[in-house]
Amino acid sequence: MTDKETIERMVGRPLAWTIDPLLAGVPAAGRLITAKVGPELVWSCCRELYRARTAPRAFRALFSALWVLDHPRVKADTGRDTLAAMLEFGEFERLGGDVATVWRGGQGQAAETVAAGWSWSTSYRWAAWFAVSTVPGEPGGAPSVVVAEVPPGQCYIVPGRLSELAGEVLLVEPPASVLVAGSPVEWEAEAAKAEATRLASRPLGLLADAGEVLRWAVSSTGTEGAA
Questions:
Q1: Is the pLDDT of residue 33 over 60?
Q2: Do the strands 168-171 and 119-121 form a parallel or antiparallel pair, or are they unpaired?
Q3: Which residues form the domain of 21?
Q4: How many domains does the chain contain in total?
Q5: Burial class of residue 103 (count of CB atoms within 10 Å of its CB; 0-12, 13-18, 19+)
Q6: Which of 3, 116, 131, 203 makes a 20 to 30 Å CA pair with 17?
Q7: Does residue 130 lie in a domain region?
Q8: pLDDT single digits (tens) 132-155
């Protein structure tokens, strides 16, 4: 069975038109499939691809969409070691350089507890946004923002519109130490700026994703014809 047939068996024939771009790693294809079939089926698909060690770019597109939509499901079923192995298998890009400065926003938790989280940002502003915003699957409470310096090789970039806007990275090892960054007044101000940016760049959701997938298909067909 080919990779295409394997994925079609898992997600269904009506979504067959999205599978070629998915195999090419187009993030929009992963978002479309996740929106249509739901997180539970996508997570099952991700685990099957990972176990078989096949179609890593399709895995990356699906996992990225799933993480944005339902990261508590992933965290409930995996540990950091498995996360690192999955991100390596999916050929996720890592941060470059010698040292990476990253921030993380949380609510109702001590700084050390906030620092234990998996999802961080390369932007202080967006960490503040996460600290003061309501995030599904995260506890509510008083906001806090921490900052750390970590090896960039431990920071994997998550493809996705909001993730890319927010500079989201997944840390496969918790930082050795953290500091509290800024103050509640600063966090509110920075979060307001981030929210304005988010609203200004808000895409058309599934319509935009379908357009991106179709443009990829047309481009791919044109390239094949030219060859």
A1: yes
A2: antiparallel
A3: 3-89
A4: 2
A5: buried
A6: 203
A7: yes
A8: 987 666 666 789 999 999 999 999
